[in-house]
Amino acid sequence: MSDPPKPERLAVRAAEEASPSDPLGPLVDAVRESAGLPADEVARRVREALPSAITELVESNRRLRDGAQHLESLVAAAAAELRATAEAFGHDGHEARAAAGARLRRLAEDLERTLRPGPEAEPSRGLGAVSSRPRVLVVDDEEDAREALAEVLQPQWEVLSAADGARAVELTRSELPDLVLMDLAMPKLDGMQALRQIRADPTTADVPVIFVSARGDDQVKARALDLGAVDYLQKPFSERELRARIERTLRLARSQSALRELAQTDPLTTLANLRAFRARLAEEVKRARRYRTPLTCVMADMDHLKPVNDSLGHAAGDRAIAALASVIRSQLRETDFGARYGGDEFVLLLPHTGGDEGRVLAERICARLKTSVIEVSGRRISIGASFGVACLSEDSPEETAEDLVRAADTALYRAKRAGRGRVEVAEAGADADAELSAPQGHA
């Protein structure tokens, strides 16, 4: 199995994927080869080539988008590091180093300008927004204090503001800032109460919070840190100390985020791993029960992988698994969740999706795989998989997350027995009995 990709390799891969072969090539070839044929034969060939051409065009657009996001992330990180270095140069009183710091700041600004939308583009907010600067939420009930902090921070960071703890919790959930600077004494919710709510929500639990307060007794500081604050800054403080603490916190947050992502990502496929899937499964089942929305699970198992491993080696098998994962990823919506379940098995969670819609998605992936091949040592290897689909039953509130996965796995076993390269949907009641006699593994 290959090592986790480094950022430099991701950038190279993004650049390579951003320039794929012409996705409409097969359609053009079909039209060219139909020259001189009857009109109905031309129409038939075009109809056959059109679905795969549309799919390839969608995949090409996805690659371009992903490549741009990778490059933007790298540029933003480089600009942040240049600014941090420039800040270090600018405070030691040495004239030459101060000049070097100024040059570094100008370079950082040039890099950040490449990430900013032009005047014709509307600014995007909330989840999914791409910003060249980290966002800091300033929370204080005194307007003068908020404005003073914003004036200090805005040259380096994007600043949001809230006048009370309740509004701070709302903005943290909707905007997901990179850092929250929060006062203690505020109306509606004080700082401690707001911090509890931020930490209790899985969406915002990892957002770092620094308390900024005139209260300096050890008991208050200890309580704030026990509740999950990452730092406590006592007023009055210098601008330099404030910036240093923010920069340190943001660096630690980036490192922790990278480690979390690494711990939850399968290195071969870059999909989520089994640990991340189990955590997400529990969340989605709980959400589906609470709001009475459908939730579908799809299990996928690669067909005929063992002959590939035996004849061409496990490196070729790994390439085949990665190719299957790429096709799966290309068909998922933003709200869907895909993970490598283990070996050559994959699992998908489809929120707000019924069993029939889940079957359509599985059949689309299955059809796409039938036209997918990889080339290893001059040999073309076909990629295929079998699929099992199950939907969380609204009529059986006692059905657990494990029951949902087991039902999808049993349907997958039926697809294997029925000839592979197909989709089977779990039948309520029937699959529970069939599962008892199903052998382990689907090779």
Question: What do you see in this structure?
Answer:
The protein is α/β, with parallel strands linked by helices and 443 residues long. It has 3 domains: 7-113; 135-256, Response regulator (Rossmann fold, 3-Layer(aba) Sandwich); 274-437, 2-Layer Sandwich (Alpha-Beta Plaits), CATH 3.30.70.270. The chain has 15 helices and 12 strands. The strands form 3 sheets. The chain has a 5-stranded parallel beta sheet with strand order 2-1-3-4-5, with helices on both faces. The chain has a 5-stranded mixed beta sheet with strand order 7-8-6-11-12, with helices on both faces. It has a two-stranded antiparallel ribbon with strand order 9-10. Helix 2 (25-33) packs antiparallel against helix 3 and helix 6 (165-175) packs parallel to helix 7. The longest helix has 51 residues, at 39-89. The protein starts with 6 loop residues before the first helix and ends in a 6-residue tail after the last helix. 28% of the residues are buried.
Provide key terms for this protein.
five-stranded mixed β-sheet; disordered N terminus; Rossmann fold; 15 helices; 443 residues; 3 domains; five-stranded parallel β-sheet; alpha/beta; Alpha-Beta Plaits
Q: Supply the helix-strand structural class.
A: alpha/beta
CATH superfamily of the largest domain: Reverse transcriptase/Diguanylate cyclase domain
> Would you identify the CATH architecture of the largest domain?
2-Layer Sandwich
Integer average pLDDT: 80
By DSSP (H or I, 4+ residues per run), the number of helices equals 15
Question: What portion of residues is helical?
Answer: 40-55%
Q: Quote the CATH topology of the largest domain.
A: Alpha-Beta Plaits
| Major sheet strand order | 2-1-3-4-5
Shape: globular
